[in-house]
Amino acid sequence: MASMLRSLTKRLFVLLTFAITVLFLLSCAAWFIEPGKHWYIALLGVGFAFLFFAISAMLIFWIVLRSKWFLLPLAAMAIGWKPINAFIAFHPFTPQSQQKKPSSLRVMQWNVARFDEMRGRPRSGKSKRRQILEYIRKENPDIICMQEFLETNDRKLFDENIPFFRDSLGYRYFYYAMDHRRPDRVYEHGIAIFSKYPIRKTHRRKFGGPREQKADESFIYVDIAVNGKMVRVFTTHLQSLLFTNAEFRKFEEIKQGGDSTIEKSRDIFLKFRNAYGFRQQQAEMIRKELDASPHPAIICGDFNDVPNSFVYHRIKGDRKDAFTRRGFGIGRTYSALSPTLRIDYIMTSQEIGVLQCRNPHPSLSDHFPVIADLLLPD
């Protein structure tokens, strides 16, 4: 009886290993499969982190039992090495310092979530605008790329941000693209690049999707002269899932299970499907401009997608991901939904060196900043 139970248990674990392996490989395939056509594969890619941990557990389990079945998860992990390498940065001994080397160029990527102004106006002291601005002053980047950058049209209600960056923080050069404006014109927000070095050229392109789904945002680039060297810096905010507070609550309810799980999931899956299609189109537009750049290029942005996604793979191409080159760990950049979400990036041309990349977690926005010290080619 005991031997029969052991045999049945082993068969169950073999089936579980097969199931996890198949799901893991499908999540790896999200890197190459167009999400606009096969959104359900892309959705599996969102669960890559959990599948990676599951298949790692299966590998350890079979090794402990000294069973040949360890070869199955091992082979799957070998096949999925590129997505694994994009998911985890393996540089525990790379120096991480707030002190910047004199020859380096410090770049910061941050979705500042409208400086938290929707929770409380600055004069009431409830928003986190002042803390965000002080944090930027402390880190002292040479170039900042921001998404959801808010600017006021009514100085009685909100403080101006562009003049503060220019006059108080010392960013004399900037390019701002407004993507959304409130109907009453009280404020607007979009994407922005601020630089301490001269900007020689600017360019903006709208994505051209339906405005009602906020799919008509922009990507911009600027050519910056850094001590006689020209570099092209891009930034963008790719299609968001546009989850409401009610849908965030649905996520928590789905995690707990229940009879209405399928009904609650329907609208959420629809938003995933729509967003994947838009982001694929946007990634293709950005990739074309990146490939056409006459200068070494840096792209910073909130891609709203994970490192093993088609969007990440398409935009990155043969470029360097600053975090996987010099960071360590998972590099979470979004504070909600899952502790494994890295959706904000700094990528560079191959000829640009990456000295360090930090991913601090100040509780100031729903996104965390990414800060990289780069070395431009001679």
Overview of the molecule:
A six-stranded mixed sheet has the order 4-5-3-2-14-13. α1 runs parallel beside α4 (71-79) and α9 (261-291) runs parallel beside α10 (310-316). A hairpin with a 2-residue loop joins β7 (218-226) and β8. Helix content is 38%, strand content 24%. It has helices at residues 2-29, 39-46, 48-64, 71-79, 81-87, 129-139, 162-168, 245-256, 261-291, 310-316, 322-326; strands at residues 89-90, 105-111, 143-152, 173-181, 187-195, 199-206, 218-226, 229-237, 297-302, 320-321, 328-329, 344-348, 353-358, 370-375. The protein has two domains: 2-87, no CATH class; 105-375, Deoxyribonuclease I, Chain A (4-Layer Sandwich), CATH 3.60.10.10. It is an alpha+beta fold and 378 residues long.
Q: Helix tally?
A: 11
Question: Runs with pLDDT <50, length 5+?
Answer: none
| Overall form | globular
Compute the number of strand runs: 14
Beta strand %: 15-25%
How would you spell out the order of helices and strands? Answer: HHHHHEEHEHEEEEEHHEHEHEEEE
Mean pLDDT: 89
Radius of gyration: 22 Å
Total discrete domains: 2
Strand pairing plus helix content: what structural class? alpha+beta
What is the second-level CATH architecture of the largest domain? 4-Layer Sandwich
CATH topology of the largest domain: Deoxyribonuclease I, Chain A
CATH class of the largest domain: Alpha Beta
What's the helical proportion of residues? 25-40%
Describe the biggest sheet?
Answer: 6 strands, mixed
